[in-house]
Amino acid sequence: ILTRLIYGSRVSVVIASVSILVGGFIGVSLGIIGGYFGGWVDSLIMRAVDISLSIPIILLGLVLVAALGPSKSTVIIVVVILLWSRYARLARGETLAVRTQVYIARARVSGASHTRIMIHHVFPSIFNSVMVLATLQVGFVIILEATLSFLGAGVPPPTPAWGSMVADGRDKLAGGVWWISTFPGVAIMLTVMSLNWFGDWLRDTLDPRLRQLE
Q1: How many Å apart are CA 149 and CA 155, to the nearest integer?
Q2: Following DSSP, what letter does each residue of 88-132 receive, concatenated?
Q3: Contacts of residue 125, Cβ cutoff 8 Å, sequence gap at least 6
Q4: How far apart are CA 29 and CA 118, in angstroms?
Q5: Secondary structure (3-state) at 5
Q6: Neighbour-count burial for 98-117, b at 16+ CB within 10 Å, e otherwise
Q7: CB 31 within 8 A of CB 87
Q8: Distance between CA atoms of 182 and 185, rounded to whole angstroms?
Q9: Alpha-carbon distance 140 to 146, whole Å?
Q10: Taking CA 100 as the corner, what is the angle to CA 99 and CA 102, rounded to the nearest 5 degrees?
Q11: Above 60 in pLDDT, residue 180?
């Protein structure tokens, strides 16, 4: 059980890291584009965000598993479809506040292209907020991956995953064999709690408004 817990942590970390990197890149890029240009571009991106947020994620996972089969790639696709919209909404809101700043106007006057302004001026200004959201989303992704694995829509056996380990031991709880489900459940709880605490600390550290209140 200890060996499977250790290996299962690698599975959870890999899925969370890849999902957040891909979903964050897509969401932040679209959010910056929508917030910077506004108009019909912003409306189109935000309608896509609304559609993504309205999709039942567990139902989507079960549908994709039926179509593609259970695998790490399927879990990553499900998580990316869910996560990109959260990053897009955050990046769009931050960009709306940043694009009116004086240094953005000076960059336009100096002849900088829209792409250069978004990459070299807008993105660094919203980077702290994106990093805080990414840190907080790691725990959420781990819970989501464990839920899908518990339902049989995640990482397929014999690859150990925390969610599937909990599912393997649920039928043995009545017989007094509690540790098969308990230890992976405790691992999920401790990991998510520690990541949430780290995200709160990072938000307090990177947000200058909160530092001014101290």
Answers
A1: 6
A2: HHHHHHHHHHHTTSHHHHHHHHTT--HHHHIIIIIHHHHHHHHHH
A3: 94, 98, 101
A4: 9
A5: helix
A6: bbeeeebeebeeeeeeeeeb
A7: yes
A8: 5
A9: 10
A10: 105
A11: yes
- 110-159 pLDDT, tens digit each: 888 888 888 888 888 888 888 888 888 888 888 888 888 887 777 777 88
pLDDT, tens digit (0-9, with 9 covering 90-100), for 49-86? 888 888 887 787 778 777 877 778 888 888 888 888 88
Cα separation, 34 vs 22, whole angstroms: 18
Return the residue matching tokens 């250069």. 116
In terms of DSSP H, where are the helices of the chain? Answer: 2-37, 39-54, 57-68, 72-98, 102-109, 114-117, 123-150, 162-170, 179-206, 208-213
Amino acid at 15: I
